[in-house]
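We modelled the chain as a single entity of 150 amino acids. Its sequence is:
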Amino acid sequence: MALEVPPPEVIPVAATASRASSLISIALLVISVGFATAGQITLKAAMDAIGRIGTQEVSNAAQTIGRAVREPLLWGGLVLFGVSALFWLIVLSRVDLSIAYPFVGLSYVLVVGLARLVFHENVPPLRWIGVCVIAIGIALIGFSSRTVSG
């Protein structure tokens, strides 16, 4: 039984293909997270336009639902989430869930930053520390996937 060793010219091609596939997977992950983040921001804008739910009388519930159904930002946010889900399915077909899912945490980082910038929300220091912890966790997962896959 002989051990077959591929010719040297084959090895760099395989490594390049693997690296390109990894880059595509990362890009798909980022796109999915980007659409999900845009969906969250759009849905928040829609709900700001619709108004606070739960402070009105029960008889006004139908009226609130009617306003929600007619709010274009609500539909836009849902579409963005749908597009994000389509990219997510592609990601799941290519990447281990234990690596892909923690990258969803990027949306937490982005949403907090955008909430501060777009909606002028007050983000206390302890929340920023939490965002940094999430970002560090995502970086660690990214490094662990590089060491496992080569």
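As a brief sanity check on the tokenised model: Residues 20-149 form one domain. The chain has one domain: 20-149.
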